[in-house]
Amino acid sequence: MSKTYAGNYFEDFQVGQELLHTSPRTVTDGDAAMYTALYGARFALTSGATFAASMGMERMPLDAMLVFHIVFGKTVPEVSLNAVANLGYADCRFTAPVFAGDTLTARSEVIGVKANRDGKTGVVHVHSIGTNQHGETVLDYVRWVMVRKRNESSPAPETVIPDLPSVVSPADLVVPAGLSGTAYDAVLAGSEFLWDDYEIGERIDHVDGMTIEEAEHMLATRLFHNTAKVHFNQFVEQHGRFGRRIVYGGHVISIARALSYNGLANAQTILAINGGTHCNPTFAGDTVHAWSEVLDKVALPGRTDVGALRTRLVATKDLPATDFPLKGEDGRYLPNVVLDLDLTLLIPRR
Amino acid sequence: MSKTYAGNYFEDFQVGQELLHTSPRTVTDGDAAMYTALYGARFALTSGATFAASMGMERMPLDAMLVFHIVFGKTVPEVSLNAVANLGYADCRFTAPVFAGDTLTARSEVIGVKANRDGKTGVVHVHSIGTNQHGETVLDYVRWVMVRKRNESSPAPETVIPDLPSVVSPADLVVPAGLSGTAYDAVLAGSEFLWDDYEIGERIDHVDGMTIEEAEHMLATRLFHNTAKVHFNQFVEQHGRFGRRIVYGGHVISIARALSYNGLANAQTILAINGGTHCNPTFAGDTVHAWSEVLDKVALPGRTDVGALRTRLVATKDLPATDFPLKGEDGRYLPNVVLDLDLTLLIPRR
Amino acid sequence: MSKTYAGNYFEDFQVGQELLHTSPRTVTDGDAAMYTALYGARFALTSGATFAASMGMERMPLDAMLVFHIVFGKTVPEVSLNAVANLGYADCRFTAPVFAGDTLTARSEVIGVKANRDGKTGVVHVHSIGTNQHGETVLDYVRWVMVRKRNESSPAPETVIPDLPSVVSPADLVVPAGLSGTAYDAVLAGSEFLWDDYEIGERIDHVDGMTIEEAEHMLATRLFHNTAKVHFNQFVEQHGRFGRRIVYGGHVISIARALSYNGLANAQTILAINGGTHCNPTFAGDTVHAWSEVLDKVALPGRTDVGALRTRLVATKDLPATDFPLKGEDGRYLPNVVLDLDLTLLIPRR
User: Fold this and answer.
1) pLDDT tens-digit map of B35-90
2) Would you list the domain boundaries of chain A?
3) Which of A128, B115, C280, C309 could cysteine-pair with B122, CB 3.0–4.6 Å?
4) Nearest CB to B188: which of C4, C20, C221?
5) CB atoms within 10 A of CB C324
């Protein structure tokens, strides 16, 4: 019997199945520093312990996207090792802050399967949960992937497509325990603009661009224990679809989020990812720009100190975001648009 | 009103103006490890906690240049986002050691402005201070930059050029609290040569060379929260002056300082940067060599255990330092000389 | 007298000589994170503090290979700065776990010298020991290197070749203090296969490949304080034997060990390196694959909870390991085989 793990194929997934993800991962100040070196994010809540304390946090939390990547990475071996594409995210909520020294574990439940007509692939929905060493859920989300079948002749399972919210309900958003927007120092945070100052429909060009190097996206992807093969093996990928390694989509998310500091500096953390699409692949040498659109302004139940902005975060490659590029006249994403993410961000109110 | 921050232009600076720099930055063991990976510095005081303890320090301090870069990076958005060139440093003193877990904040005061005759730019002098979470000043320096004007037609301000010392006075040098050179283990530190063994005028070729990669200088520059655009965006820079990203000058300083271990291994920390010039730009693919000249031997007031060496630290690109390259017959820096830095280094005495 | 250190030449080594290695090195969570980013190792014992606790460890130990590289790096200046080749390892034992915050120091004793017939080089055997801040030995090994002579005319010393074991004796293997294989959670560790499930002679293709970038191997090698020149200086190496920088052999070991998780996920730590050869040089751009062969199954004295597997770990460049490539018909290593390492791995028993 083979000692190596080949990952699950479409036939291996059944609705209701529990997937335990392996190798709990202790996240440390070291991971946070590596994350800073990779993306340069400057949000004050996750940059300075004194600032976090001024917002009521006993300790400085880790960047929400670092937590996302680590939990996501944990799910790759059992969920997407044989995936053709990562199709989408839904109902992703950050439910508790994570601190240096915490150990994250992940598990998933299969909540949807649907065979594709091509007979070669199927779509699998999984509900994944990341927990800390106290058993608290820190991250809860659904993603769906297109996975290869082991055998084209395998019969199609009964189709199950889960009912998913298009937006996380405000009642389900969790403000990090202890965090307060009272006595908030906007100037020190880097921008005078708070929740009250943004308007629905407003679009923001985040101005700066960041060029990706092979070493960077591989360092990131390994840091996250993400084992998807297409990111690492040029010997194989030279003969693949693109002739080169593909950058982990989450790497682009983190670059875009870091760039969004310029225009959304007070959006201190991510409360939810409502949905998202990796519209086109990204490669080393590409320069990422980003822009945001305010989709909604959300009052948080019982809170007047902080509110939420629902934003679309779009990233491009080799195309500045000045004109807010998104889709062509045919309704399809432009070829240089690589990310269209629907976020709910926490931001202090006046 | 635009939500994004465009940085200050020459017209925005007035003498006496206070600039608060944003996003306090907690520096950790993670940053120290990243710094080691980037430069490979081996000075014993900042490498081994046991060695730091043997020199009287309760905890191992972080590398002085890491502190410099983080404070410097904090100043970039308000000082040099629209700079054409970083012209010089003066009177830079490291006034307290920084330890893992400390949070650094920076502020600056504009102390000089001078419009250039071209009508397009001006020179701004700023006095910057980095403080820790206790409010102690850890770094104090002046730098001046050439900054673009917003409008060529803007009137020139009254010229103010601050009076700056060419060398930090010995009375202003601060030996890290607790540090002692008594019972110093030179062999374990990596060299038998102490303060007494160096001669004024002595020049040292630091022998080794280090080739720079794009991923490395960008990891470094993001780690330092330095947002200067020219370091990151190949899409724009391909059409720029050099056709490529420019390496942050501080990256070259740290490489040269790390190389200087071979010849100055006992120069455990930097007390002051008296001045410095980034003579020519550096790019990925360049190999940096370095050499030092002992400019002065400074007795520290009241100390017989440690002294100071004032050194010139020169870095080159693609040119070994065997012949101590510096300037041509025309008195100008040779094209392969990239750094000429005037340092005051702490070193134990016999 | 030159202030710089030129390293030892063959004439400088005498049997019985003690070499003290410089700059004690405190290893931290930051180093561990950097190591994860560089290699992506997922062994549960060194990934999650909760998992380490479930195996009886009060704290999560650092990866054994990180310890190896740091001690090895410490020995480079005095042992192999003028080496032509790193010829082999023997009797390498990991004798105590290392934790974040520990400070490692290294010393070596010369235990063998033999002049080569070419008159230009000689072989030096050193016995190196790494200790922590409590004076405990954490790593103990012999390596031998081919070192340049300073002068071809120097007389040959009396040949001494130490008697070295081909395999570390089971009685000399040290299970980390506190570690227990009772109540071991194999599923969470990532594989159902324990000591009992492997057979002598069994070969495992570790499937995945990892492409090396210049930035990565240089970050690694600097992190380890390894100063061997051939890894860093493209300006010199462009005229060297290969026209390019050579990747530190230990970088390849760590990649191969990380890849071996797929097939040996429960081989939680390395107890010994019995021997090893860097068969061919590796360069940036090469993609490393790996395979293992079970050479022996070793019962550990007095233990029924954990056992040891002696394995051969082979790494290739630009050649998948499907067919277990090793040597040609001429008995020589194939040109794409870069590593042949003989390891003793700790693995829980049923």
Assistant:
1) 999 999 999 999 999 999 999 999 999 999 999 999 999 999 999 999 998 999 99
2) 10-151+165-348
3) B115
4) C20
5) 14
Euclidean distance between the first and final Cα of chain B, in Å? 63
- Of C40, C34, C29, C33, nearest in space to C256 by CA: C40
Q: Quick check: A1 pLDDT over 90? A: no
Across all residues in chain C, what is the average pLDDT? 97
Q: How far apart, in Å, are the Cα atoms of A339 and each of A244, A322, A334, A336, B298?
A: 19, 16, 11, 9, 58
Over range A222-226, report the average pLDDT: 98
The third-level CATH classification (topology) of the domain covering A10-151+165-348 is Thiol Ester Dehydrase; Chain A (3.10.129)
- At A53 the three-state DSSP class reads helix
Please count the residues of chain A: 350
Q: Quote the percentage of chain A above a pLDDT of 90.
A: 99
Decide if B207 contacts B256 (C-beta within 8 A). no
Backbone angles phi, psi at A345, to 5 degrees: -110, 140
Taking alpha carbons only, the member of A218, A256, A262, A282 closest to residue A343 is A256
Check residue B244 and give left, alpha or beta (phi > 0: left; psi -120 to 50: alpha). Answer: beta
Pairing state of beta strands A287-299 and B83-94? unpaired
CA pseudo-torsion sign B303, B306, B309, B314? negative
Query: Which chains are adjacent to chain C, needing at least 3 Cβ pairs under 8 Å?
Result: A, B
CA of A289: how far to CAs of A137, A286, A292, B233, in Å?
A: 33, 10, 11, 9
The tokens for C193 are: 């296969």
Give residue B80's pLDDT: 95
Query: Would you give the distance in Å from CA B343 to the centre of its chain?
Result: 9
Please count the other Cβ atoms lying within 10 Å of the Cβ belonging to residue C114.
17
Which residues fall within 8 angstroms of residue C191, CB to CB, at 6 or more apart? A3, A5, C263, C264, C265, C266
Q: Give the pairing type, strands C18-20 and B25-26.
A: unpaired
The tokens for B96 are 């307290």
Measured between beta carbons, which residues in chain C are less than 8 angstroms from residue A234? 211, 285, 287
The set of residues, in sequence order, having a beta carbon less than 8 Å from that of A59 and lying 6+ positions away, is: A49, A52, A99, A100
How close does chain C come to B240, measured CA to CA in Å? Answer: 25
C254: its two tokens: 């760590």
The rounded distance, in Å, linking the Cα atoms of A160 and C226 is: 55
Chain B: residue nearest A288 by CA? B233
What's the rounded Cα separation, in Å, for the pair B130 and B136?
Answer: 8
CB distance A173 to A272 below 8 Å? yes
Give this complex's ipTM. Answer: 0.97
CATH number attached to the domain at B10-151+166-348? 3.10.129.10
Assigned fold of C10-147+176-348: Thiol Ester Dehydrase; Chain A (3.10.129)
From chain A, pick out residues whose CB is under 8 angstroms from the CB of C214: 215
Residue B302 Ramachandran class (φ > 0 left, ψ -120 to 50 alpha, else beta): left
Beta-sheet pairing, B337-348 with B269-277: antiparallel
3-class secondary structure, C219: helix
A residues 21..40 contacting C (CB < 8 A): 22-26, 28-31, 33-34
Q: How many CA atoms lie within 13 A of B48 on its CB side?
A: 26
Beta strands in chain C (DSSP E): 18-20, 25-26, 83-94, 103-115, 121-131, 137-148, 203-205, 210-211, 269-277, 287-299, 306-317, 337-348
